[in-house]
Amino acid sequence: MLSEQSLSAPVFHCLSRTQARLENHTALYEGVSAAIWQREESALTRYQHPGHHTLSCYLDGGQDIRRLYPSRSISGGAPGRICLMPEDHDSNWDVNGKIRFMHLYFSEQHLRHLAGRIQDKGSDHLVLQDLTFIDDLWISRLCQQMMMPLNWQDNADQMMLSSASDMLMVHLLKHYCSDYKGLPESTGGLSPYLKRQMIDYIEQHLDQPLTLQELAAFAQLSEYHFARMFKQSLGVAPHQYVTLRRLNLAAYLLRQSNSSLADIALRCGFSSQSHLSQRFKAHYHVTLAEYRKGH
Length: 295
Known about the structure:
- The protein folds into 2 domains: 4-178, Jelly Rolls; 185-295, Homeodomain-like (Arc Repressor Mutant, subunit A).
- The two termini are 37 Å apart.
- It is globular, with a radius of gyration of 21 Å.
- It has helices at residues 10-16, 108-119, 137-147, 155-176, 192-204, 212-219, 223-234, 238-256, 261-267, 273-284, 288-294, and strands at 21-29, 32-39, 43-48, 53-61, 66-68, 73-74, 81-85, 90-95, 99-106, 127-128, 131-135, 177-178.
- By secondary structure, the chain is an alpha+beta fold.
């Protein structure tokens, strides 16, 4: 697991100094990281101009938390509720009861860079809203159903985590950011030549992390446009395609080789045999041993 020093977000370090328990965390790429926390103690917590944006998704509890203002307070936390804390915000929280939540930390520089890649031009006037205890089913489902089940320390899942974090930030740009113009629609998929090159590149590097940034750089496209064009050409998102090809390779090796299950997992880009086993059974509905025995 990554060290806490690998996550430089002030909100992360503010929570680290309390009795909050860190359940999971990962640095996705420069300026973007994520963490899952649990808190049980009653305490006052202040986030004062952290210098980075924070998206918070409540996973469990939160009903007894209040955000404090000079003359009033706001309650309404619950599983699935969302808070968005911009980099320059100042907030005080009265934390009571058990709570479990996921944080996505991202820098203003990364958000501007993402907006620029999507729009193919610079974005100098982005202002994220300050939101407390809102309902956004799209965000809560992405966090709980896509990001939470992944192995955050596994190379095979890093592309999915990175893609999901970008999806979250694009959603924030579209719905909770002022002075941001709509996204342009892509006009087509990958060219036949580039599609063939991309398929070959992926096949040759299935044992490696294969990040979205790497694939987009190979195609000489922005990550956003590459992901959309890739899906239009191949019918699935890049991270889904890579996972399917890794599982296909694992099935082939189980049929055609006597390699150990641990070796097959590494050759297919999974960090461990158990992680491959979990994904393989979910896709093929049989265990690795059952599949090998049946072939």
